[in-house]
Each structure stands twice: as structure tokens, then as C-alpha cells.
Amino acid sequence: MPHAYHIGMTTEHAPDHPAPLHTIGVVGCGLMGAGIAEVCARRGHPVTVSEVSQAALHAGLARLRGSLDRALERGKLTDLDHAVTLDRIRGTTDLADFADCDLIIEAAVEHLDTKREIFRRLDEIAPAHAILASNTSSISITRLAAATGRPAQVVGAHFFNPVPVMPLVEIIRGLQTSDATFEAVKAFGQALGKQVVVCLADNPGFIVNLLFIPYGLDAIRGLEQGVATKEDFDVAMKLGMNHPMGPFELLDFVGLDTVLFIADAMYDETRDPRYAAPPLLRRMVAAGHTGRKGGKGFYDYRT
User: Structure pTM?
Assistant: First the structure.
């Protein structure tokens, strides 16, 4: 069946009252995309999730199914809910299959040019009323919106990993994001059962990474300077500041490659030395010591 293509509305013609956000598209079925697709489907939304290849799509859908299987085993889902949720999800390698979506959430690789090309294509494909959102943790929403003819309908929706467990979502306003778009996506996040925080300015790092990245980088600098051991830094912040994780435990949990990417993006945008990555972080990422997901970071997880 041929796909219908639509050109998005310009800022001047953005709808004052967006259509209900029922049918959802998710670009990317990695850790974040699969999690976003899962929480949307569990809340009753038909979801189309895409990947760049059949192999990547197969792996992503297997990851999603595995998460639902674990929820079933733990009594978080009934057999019926498990089956119905899976039935709501379809996978694709063709962005044209997003032609009927009300909201499309981009969760692709954190690379500006890649994301801008995705937004350009989605603008051609998505229906005129559709809202385009990005799950980016560091890239300017305004710069992504500029790749479209509907910047008023572009917004940030930054979820946290693992998405089915983490209760937070940041909603980020681009320079041209309309009030109607912002409020619609904020309400959507709340309807997913998330605690919504709003970032009113499209600043690098938004809210969470604005605070976390300097904190994490300062901890690494302190380790480089011999201020304390990583273990004592972690104990000090857990017991002295009542944090659930110390800085090095948290850096490993987030992923050192992810931290480096976000820090570099924030530094490139601002030239603020607080965001300049310490040499130790670069060396560890170059060595493949990316944290928990790689088996080794500041701590060793291989045993």
C-alpha cells in the first residue's frame, strides 16, 4: 500500500489545540527507544518503533519483549496485559510508517546531523498536526526544530534509563515551541505516569545534566588530583549528602561514553570550562571502559 506524505505546518499555522496524542512513533529501538515504546504501549497507545536495519530492529524488539517478560514474572503485568501490550507495538525500518502518528519521539544516536536529518524526513512524512519530540540529553531543541517546517510543533521529551522504571521526564521548550505543543507533551508525560519537570530555556544539558555533568567531572578531577579514592568520594556523597549513589557509581551507571558525549556537546555549545572533559575520562572511554554496560568503568563489574 502506498504511503501518504504530508508537509508539516509552518510556525504561523501551528494548531492552537493539537489533536489528541494517541498514535505514537518512536525513532530508534535501542535502550531508550525500546523503553519509551514500552511505556507508551503499556498506557494504551498504538506504537510504531523504527530501526535502521532488520537486525537492529530484531534486537530492539527482543529487548522490549524481555523487559515485558520480566514485568510479567515480577507480577507487574498480567498475562492479558503482557499480550495486549505486545500487540500494540509494531516495528519497521521505514520512516514512512510514521505517516499516521500524532506524536513521534526521536531516540536515535546523539549526533546533531543525524538527528537533524531524521527531523527533516519526519517533517515530510508526519501528518500536519503531528508533534515531533526528541529524547536528546544534550542537543539544542531549537537546532533540531530548524530542520523542519513546523518548529512550533517541536519539543524535547528527555526520558531516563531504564525508562519503564525511572519516574522522571524532562520537557524542554525550544525557542519557537508553541504553548499548545509544550502543554500537550507535558500532559502526555504525566499521562504516562511520569513526574514531569519543565525546562523553560533551551540551555545545554537542560536541568539534570546542567547539574550532573559538572558534578561528575569535578569528581573525576578530584580523583586525578589525588584528593581521595573513588571509594571515599562515593561514601562521602552517600553518607554526607544522602545521595543514593556516589559520583563514580553514578558515572558508571550512566555510561562513561555517554557522559563524555554530553560533556563535549555542552562544552562545544558554551565553551564553559566546567564542561571540559578531564583527560582520565577520555582515556577510559578510549580503552573501552564505559562503566556497567561495558563490564568495567571506575569499578569492575566482570566478577
Answer: 0.89
